[in-house]
C-alpha cells in the first residue's frame, strides 16, 4: 500500500520524498501513553527526515584529556591516533538470504540504514559488499586525517568469506584503517561481582529499604542518576572464543554492562564485544575507545526511535540492524526466474 501511495504522490510531486514510519497501534490507543513518549516519537521521526546531517541532538565531541604532539613519523603499527571513527554494523539472516547494514559517525550526526535481499544468488553478496563500501566511502569523503572504520558483525560470528571481502576492499583505500569486532547480547559469559558497592546505587537495587529520605536543605550534596542510562564497560584479561565460531579467538574481549533491578544475582545486562582485527599494536587501548563510543551511541536509542529502555545498553546502529533483521526475515519475496 505504501508503494502505491508513494507512486501516486510522486507522479504529481516528482521532487517529493516519502518515508515510511511504522507505529504500533497500541501506542496510539493506549490512554497511558505519556507526553514524553510522544515527544520521543516526534524526535525519532524528525531525526530520520532529510537532510540527514541535521539532527535534533547528537553526541558532543569529547575534549582530549591531554594534547599529544607527534613531531616525527612513528614506526609502522605504533601510531594509534585516529582523527575520525566511522561505525559500520551489519548482519546476515540465518538462511543467508538477507543482509542489513547501518552506518554512523561517533557523534551520531551522520547515519544510514539499509537492507538487501540476497536470495539464492551466488554473486549478490559480493555486489552488496561493494555497495556498502561505496556508501562508506561517501561517509569518509569529507573527513580529514587518519580514519578508523569500526566494522561490527552481529551474532558473535564472522565467516571467512565475509572477512576476505572486507580486507580486499579496505586494502585499496588510503588513510582508512580497519578494526573488526564481533558483538552479541546473548553471551554466556558470567560475571562474578565481588564489589557490592559499585556502582553506588547497587545496594538500592538489591534492597530498597536502604534508601533514605532526601534532605531538602542539602540538595547540592546529591547527584541525580538515571539508572536506566548507566552503562559500564569492562575489558577482560583473556580473550574469548567466539560463541558461534569455535575455531576463531578474539585478540581482545570486553563488554558493556547495565545494572538492573533483580531479586536474584542476575542483575547485569551484558553486551559482548570481541576485537578480531586491530590496525595497530595497542589492542587494549583501541577496544577501550570502541567501548566508550558504543556506550555513547547507545544513548541515542530513544532519540533515533530505536528503543527507549529495552536494550538501552546496545549502541543504536547495532540495535537498529538487529531489530530490522528480526522483522525482515518474515517477508516473502517472489523471485523472478533467471
Determine the fraction of residues in helical runs and give it as a percent range: 25-40%
Which structural category do the helix and sheet elements fall into?
A: alpha+beta
- The tally of beta strands, per DSSP, is 10
Average pLDDT, to the nearest integer? 83
Outline, from the CA principal axes? globular
Count helical runs.
8
Order of helices and strands: HHHEEEHEHEHEEEEEHH
Structure description:
The strands form two sheets. An eight-stranded mixed β-sheet has the order 3-2-1-4-5-10-9-6, sandwiched between helices. A two-stranded antiparallel ribbon has the order 7-8. Strand 7 and strand 8 form a beta hairpin. With 338 residues, the protein is of the alpha+beta class. It has eight helices and ten strands. The radius of gyration is 22 Å and the shape is globular.
Write the layout of secondary structure elements.
Elements: H1 2-12, H2 25-29, H3 35-48, E1 84-92, E2 98-105, E3 111-117, H4 124-140, E4 147-153, H5 160-170, E5 176-184, H6 202-206, E6 232-235, E7 241-242, E8 245-249, E9 252-259, E10 268-277, H7 283-298, H8 316-328
Parallel strand pairs: 1-4, 4-5
Antiparallel strand pairs: 1-2, 2-3, 5-10, 6-9, 7-8, 9-10
Identify the notable features of this structure and list them briefly.
alpha+beta, 8-stranded mixed sheet, 10 strands
Amino acid at each position: 500500500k505504501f508503494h502505491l501511495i508513494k507512486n501516486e504522490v510522486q507522479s504529481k510531486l516528482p521532487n517529493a520524498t516519502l518515508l515510511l514510519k511504522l507505529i504500533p497501534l497500541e501506542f496510539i490507543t493506549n490512554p497511558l501513553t505519556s507526553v514524553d513518549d510522544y515527544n520521543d516519537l516526534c524526535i525519532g521521526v524528525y531525526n530520520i527526515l532529510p537532510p540527514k546531517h541535521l539532527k535534533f541532538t547528537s553526541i558532543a565531541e569529547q575534549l582530549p584529556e591531554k594534547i599529544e604532539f607527534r613531531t616525527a613519523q612513528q614506526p609502522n603499527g605504533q601510531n594509534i591516533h585516529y582523527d575520525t571513527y566511522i561505525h559500520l554494523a551489519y548482519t546476515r539472516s540465518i538462511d543467508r538470504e538477507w543482509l542489513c547494514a547501518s552506518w554512523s559517525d561517533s557523534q551520531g550526526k551522520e547515519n544510514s540504514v539499509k537492507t538487501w535481499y540476497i536470495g539464492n544468488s551466488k554473486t549478490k553478496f559480493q555486489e552488496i559488499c561493494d555497495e556498502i563500501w561505496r556508501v562508506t566511502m561517501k561517509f569518509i569523503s569529507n573527513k580529514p586525517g587518519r580514519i578508523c572504520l569500526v566494522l561490527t558483525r552481529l551474532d558473535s560470528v564472522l565467516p571467512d568469506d565475509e572477512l576476505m571481502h572486507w580486507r580486499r576492499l579496505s586494502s585499496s583505500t588510503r588513510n582508512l584503517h580497519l578494526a573488526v569486532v564481533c558483538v552479541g547480547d546473548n553471551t554466556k559469559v558470567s560475571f562474578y561481582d565481588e564489589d557490592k558497592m559499585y556502582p553506588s546505587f547497587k545496594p538500592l537495587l538489591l534492597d530498597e529499604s536502604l534508601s533514605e529520605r532526601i534532605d531538602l536543605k542539602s540538595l547540592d550534596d546529591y547527584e541525580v542518576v538515571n539508572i536506566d542510562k548507566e552503562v559500564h564497560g569492562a575489558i577482560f584479561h583473556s580473550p574469548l572464543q567466539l560463541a558461534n565460531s569455535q575455531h576463531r579467538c578474539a585478540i581482545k574481549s570486553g563488554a558493556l554492562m547495565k545494572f538492573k533491578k533483580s531479586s536474584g544475582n542476575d542483575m547485569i545486562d551484558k553486551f559482548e564485544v570481541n576485537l578480531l582485527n586491530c590496525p595497530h599494536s595497542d589492542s587494549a587501548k583501541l577496544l577501550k575507545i570502541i567501548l566508550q563510543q558504543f556506550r555513547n551511541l547507545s544513548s541515542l536509542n530513544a532519540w533515533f526511535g530505536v528503543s527507549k529502555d529495552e536494550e538501552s545498553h546496545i549502541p543504536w546502529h547495532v540495535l537498529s540492524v538487529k531489530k530490522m533483521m528480526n522483522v525482515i526475515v518474515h517477508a516473502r519475496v517472489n523471485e523472478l526466474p533467471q
